């Protein structure tokens, strides 16, 4: 079975979710509950760090689409960072760069939230 882990780190208004392993139909519920937890805690400035993610399927991508509207309705956003070229290609193929800000680092994403 493929392993997947979400680590949750909050500092102030921003929450950083660190993804590790394989994100597919079997593991997507773990990401869903991490994002739901952010919303339940009224944390709408979400940064998702992909540094240790090795694989993402369409089910994993769908999780982001399921939450972005509610997050943006609450003056927040989901920013994506630290993607490998392989992971970025999957997002790029599906047009995600037009919908989401994809940045190099979590620090860059935090600065971006502070400016807006």
Features of this protein?
116 residues, alpha/beta, globular
Could you explain the architecture of this structure?
It is a single chain. This protein has 116 residues and is of the alpha/beta class. The chain has one domain: STAS domain (Transcription Regulator spoIIAA, 2-Layer Sandwich), CATH 3.30.750.24. It has 5 helices and 5 strands; from the N terminus they run ββαβαβααβα. The chain has a 5-stranded mixed β-sheet, sandwiched between helices. The termini are far apart. The mean pLDDT is 94.
Short structural summary:
Helix content is 45%, strand content 32%.
Query: Number of helix segments?
Result: 5
Classified by CATH, the class is: Alpha Beta
Which CATH architecture would you pick? 2-Layer Sandwich
- Give the SSE string: EEHEHEHHEH
Number of spatially distinct domains: 1
* CATH superfamily annotation: STAS domain
Secondary structure layout:
Blueprint: E1 4-11, E2 14-23, H1 28-40, E3 45-56, H2 58-73, E4 77-81, H3 85-93, H4 96-99, E5 102-103, H5 106-115
Parallel strand pairs: 2-3, 3-4, 4-5
Antiparallel strand pairs: 1-2
Helix pairs in contact: 1-2
């Amino acid at each position: 079975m493929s392993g997947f882990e979400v680590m949750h780190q909050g500092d102030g208004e921003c929450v950083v979710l660190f993804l590790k392993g394989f994100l597919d139909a079997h593991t997507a519920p773990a990401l869903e509950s991490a994002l739901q937890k952010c919303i339940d805690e009224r944390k709408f400035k979400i940064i998702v760090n992909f540094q240790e993610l090795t694989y993402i399927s369409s089910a994993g991508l769908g999780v982001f689409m399921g939450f972005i509207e509610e997050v943006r309705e609450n003056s927040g956003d989901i920013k994506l960072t630290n993607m490998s070229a392989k992971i970025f290609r999957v997002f790029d193929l599906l047009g995600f760069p037009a919908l989401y800000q994809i940045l190099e680092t979590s620090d860059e994403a935090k600065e971006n939230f502070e400016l807006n």
